[in-house]
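Tutorial handout. Part one gives the primary structure; part two gives the three-dimensional structure as tokens.
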Amino acid sequence: MRSVTSYLNVTNVEARLMSQHPPFDVLKASCPSRTSLVRIANKWTAMIVIALSADRMRFGDLRATVEGISGKVLTDTLRDLERDGLVARHVFAEIPPRVEYELTELGRTLHAPLEALSRWVEAHIEEVLTARETYDAHC
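Part two.
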């Protein structure tokens, strides 16, 4: 009987915790994890994280590395990543002022999955291009 009582107590604690902190579900529109996934899945975010994985970079160097990104989009994306704790902005009191960006510890945890995704794309791009040609030929 004691094991049943212990089980019920554990179950009640779990139920209470679940009601206070429901599980996150990226498929639910109201879930905060969805906003984070949308931001992380953004093409510019992935490229910025990969670019910053090697070292700190100044804005101009980052913009030159991530070809095709506009200054405004880079600024907005860096601010969003800083807000989410993924990128740190370092301002140096110099003349002219110098600002560098780097991945935080949390941001560095994104590098491996995004790098894996990047490698997958590079490994399968021929198949994707062939599929596009086939699709476009039939439309």
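Part three, for discussion. The chain is about 65% helix and 10% strand. The radius of gyration is 22 Å.
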